[in-house]
Amino acid sequence: MSKVSFRARALDATKALPIYRSDEIPDLYDYNVINRAVPQMPTGMEKEEESEKHLQQAISVDALQKNKPIIPTPESQEDVPHYEKVYSSTCRLPRNLIKLSAFDALGLDAEYADYDMDSDDEEFLKTCEEEVTPMDFERMIESMEKSSENNVISLLDAKQLFSDVNHNTLAQIYDYWLNK
User: Which residues of the chain have a pLDDT value below 70?
Assistant: First the structure.
């Protein structure tokens, strides 16, 4: 007597499946051991983690109580005596928070500034001696903002940042940014 074995394979929706009546199915008593080789799906855990005691307990309890899944969680405490020692109450948020955008990941963000012009900025640009594009203006304002994290940069520092911009135009933009 040979062993009956099954292998997992995808169903083909175009093929008709055979239908058996109850009297056509062979008795399973003839086949004491059915070797069903089902490939094990990857769990995303390492081997040592899969054999962890708590995980195995949760799986075995879940197998016993099919409709009541149990997720092992530690007990929570309301009053932790050493909380103040571990977590200080003098937390200061940084001036700039972490920013992430899809443009950063694709490298497309390099051509766009974080600063966004408003109607006052547009009116100011019309009065500039030299024509400055809105994109360049936004980059200049953003660079001066980022350079002034702790202290406001001086006009000389701004000149070093934008050596290619006309001195008079830069002075106008710097004064506008400083007053704004």
Answer: 1-8, 27-43, 59-72, 98-112
Residue 6 DSSP one-character state:
E
Residues 166/129, Cβ–Cβ less than 8 Å: yes
Residue with tokens 């006009």: 155
Q: Which two tokens stand for residue 155?
A: 């006009």
The pLDDT assigned to 56 comes to 74
Q: Which residues pair with 117 in a beta bridge?
A: none
d(CA 116, CA 155): 22
- Enter the tokens of residue 22: 């109850």
Quote the CA–CA distance of 54 and 87 in Å, as a whole number.
30
The predicted structure's pLDDT at residue 99: 65
Reading the block at residue 93, the tokens are: 């948020």
Contact 162, 170 (CB under 8 A): yes
| Cβ–Cβ < 8 Å for 53, 72 | no
